[in-house]
Design goal:
four-stranded antiparallel beta sheet; single chain; globular; Immunoglobulin-like; mainly beta; 5% helix
Amino acid sequence: MSASTCEYKAQPIERSFETVLSFAQELINVNGTFVPRPINTAPLTPVIGRLLLRFSRDLSVVKFRLSVFGNANPLSINQLVTVATLNAGRSSENGPIIAVLFNNPTGIRVNGLLASGILTNANIRHVTSASGNTYNTVASLLQGIRKGDVYVNILGSNRDPNTPGFANGLIRGQIFARQTD
């Protein structure tokens, strides 16, 4: 009697994610409906961002690196980055904060690395998105990203009361898992 063998090849699990942040992805509430912010309200100079996330194999930590470009331009002199967060929500939703990546109430001008670090379960807030996904661990954050239910949001303020600020969001980037063919 011969023993049959079953060969199992594990499928790779996506644990690294990257997204681009832009003003065009920001939403505003118009009569109870979230819509893209009008382009004529954009900062004078384009501000874009890039977020890299890398999850540990045991899902106990996620490393992040967040950069912002264009914010140091003299034309955007009044725009200051104050807060960067991971939020629960699809691309058509504004949602609750899952974790804070950067916080400086007075704001800074940046053209390059804004923040980098490590998030653990202790940094993940217990929140639920509008689509019903619950977040409270690094593993739940990964699951939400795979479902297209997490975005990064960078908030800004200004020093000139005659210039519109971006307290609800300067730039935003939805985090998606890569599609495989």
